[in-house]
Structures are given as structure tokens and as C-alpha cells.
Description:
globular; mainly beta
Amino acid sequence: AHLAVLTSTGEVYSAGLNCYGQCGVQPTGEELQPFDEPLQLHHIPHLRGKISRVCCGLDHTLFLTTRGSVLACGWSADGQTGTGGVESVLEVTEIDGVFAEPHNRVSAVFTCADSSFAVTGEQSPV
């Protein structure tokens, strides 16, 4: 399990298991050790764009920028990072492909277990 926190200034912090890079920082090899101390909080630097939403899946994380692009990291055996591969994404990586087209800007992202979802286009306030 892991978590990610988005601050009001658009910075992102994470904590928890990071075996697959899901915390947005390189794994150290000590991720499977029992937690004898409080969890270490990681600042995720160098994100491309200001982040407006962060979603944690089972072992992956999605980041939505204010310009409508999506970044991902973590376990991708089922393709849940959207990067086109099944290898773990150990660094936060921008998703290319269909989301790179200007008319396909993402307005919302969601995760559930090993799944990821993105909504494109304008959203009306609810």
C-alpha cells in the first residue's frame, strides 16, 4: 500500500511501499522490510507541469496536470500505467499516444486496484 498527497501549491509527496516505483522515486531495495519506524515521506521532484490530481492504484500512481496531460509510475504488468509496456515504471513518466493530441486533453483520472481510467474533454461542474 502507498499514498500520495497533493498540496495546494501543486507539490506531490508520497509514502508507503515502493517496490515498483509507485511512490514516484527510485526503489532502494529495502521496500519489503517491515516498518519499524514511521513511513518516510518522499517529495516527488521534477514533475512535468503543475499537478491538479493524484490517484493511487494498488501498485501504481497517476498524476494529472493542469494542462491535461497524464503522468504515471509503478507496476504495469497489466498495462495500468498506460505507457505501452508491462515493465514497472520506476520514474514518473508522461503518457504519450492518444493523450498527446490537443483534442484529447484529459480532464480527470481515476484508479482502482490494477486499473486506470481517464476522461477526456470538458467536464461540467457537478
